[in-house]
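C-alpha cells help. Consider this.
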Amino acid sequence: MHPVVLGISHRTAPLELRERLALTRDDCLSVADRLLADGVAAEAVVLSTCNRTEVYLAGADARAAEPCVLGLLCECGRLEADELSGATYCATGDAAVTHLFRVAASLDSMVVGEAQVLAQLRDAFEAARRAGATGAVFNRLFRQAIEVGKRVRAETAIAERPVSVSSAAVDLARQVLGALDDRVVLVLGAGETSELTVESLQAQGAGAVIVVNRTLETAEELAARCHGRAVCLGELDEHLAAADIVISSTAAPGLVVDRARLEPVMDRRPHRPLLLVDLAVPRDLDPAIAGLAGCHLCDIDDLQAVVAADRSEREREIAQAQLIVGEEVERLNAWIAERHVVPTISRLRDSVEGIRAAEVARQSGRLASLSAEQRDEVDQLTVAIVRKILHLPTVRLKELAGTPGAAACVEALWRLFDLDVAPPVDDRGAAAVVPLLAEARDGTGVPLPADERDTMGVPLPAEERDDVGVPMAPERPARTALSP
C-alpha cells in the first residue's frame, strides 16, 4: 500500500476557500469512513486546522483515490470541482511521508516552529485510530510523525522563541497601534488560541482583558487564569465600544460580528481606532468591517508578512529540521522494506517447524524409553537446531530488504522450500506476499488485536505497538507542488 496525501493549505488556497473546507472532528471521521467504505482506502486520517485540510490514505491505486477525495472535499465544502482547481496538492509514497513529517515538525506551518499543529495531528490520528480507520501502516506512520515533531523541537532551536499564530497577531497589533500599554483587549472565544494571545498581549503591557464567550462558565475559567473579566455574549456591544483590540478565535460556524452590528458601536467612539484580529477559520468577523472608518481588520492571512520576517531568522534551524525529516523518512522506508520480507520469513519458519515437529512425532516410538524430561530435552535440541539453521538466512533476508535483489531471493525461498505459489512482486521490486495464515498469533495461540499486527497478518514487534505520547504523521497541470 502506498501513502497518499491530498489537500489544501495556506500555501495553495486563500482563506475564503480554506474556511469552506474547515472540517469538524465528526466531519473528518465521516470522510475517512466514506473512503474506507467505498474501498478507496484501506486506512485513512483526515487533518483539518486553521491553515490546512488534508486527507491521508493508504491504498493500492493513488490515481484512483485522487478524484474520489476531491469529490468528497467538494461535497463537504459545497464546492464545484473548478473552484478547487490549482488550490490542491497531491503526493504519494516518499513525497507524502515527507510532507506529513514536515507538517508534524511545523516546517509547513504559517509560523514555523509553532507547537499547536503537533497536538492537532496527534488528536486527528487518535480519533481515526479509535474509530477503526487506521491499521498497522498508519499506526506506525503517524506515531513516527509525532516522534519527528518532538525530535525536531528537542534537537533544534526552531521553537526556542515561543511563536504561534497568536504571538504573530500581537506583533501585528504593535505595528498598527504602537505600544500596547494599558490597551483594553476584548477576546472572543475562550479556547487555547485565545489564551495564548492574551498571554502574549499581557507580556507586552496590555491592560484590562475582557473575555466574551457563548458559555459564561468557560469565559470565567479563562478570565481567572489571565486576571481578566468574563462577560456573556449578550453584553458584547457594550464592551466592543470600550475595547482597543479585539482578538477573535471561536469555533462558530458563521460570523459572530458583522458590519451592521459594529457600525453603531463605532459611532459611539469617534476618533478611537479599533484593531480587530480574526484568527478563526471559518472567519468570525465580517470582511466588510474593513470599510468602516476607524476599523483595522486583519485575518489569519494578513499575518503572512510577520511570519515571513520571522522565518528569515530561523533558516539555520529549518535546515537542521529538514535533515531530521530526511533521516526519519529513511527509517520509515527501512521498516516498510522489512515488512515485505517478514511474511516470507514467518512462512519459512512455520514450514521448517512443521517438518521438525512431524519428525519428532514420527520418532515417538523410539523415544518412548526416555523419561519425560529427556524427551523434552530432545524436543528443545531440535528446536535450537532449526533456529540456528534459519538465523543467518533470516538476517541476510532482512539486510536485503528494499534492495533490487530482495524480490528474487524471496521468490527463490518460496520455490525452493515449496512454501506455496510464488508471491506477487509490487512495482518497487519488493515482494508483497499475501498472508497464508488466517490469524496472526503471538505464539500462545491467541489472535492478536488488529492494531498489533501488520496488514499482512504478521505480529508487530513490541516496540512498534507502544503508543507514543505527546504532551498537551511529477507535477501535474493545475496542481501546486509541495514545498521541498
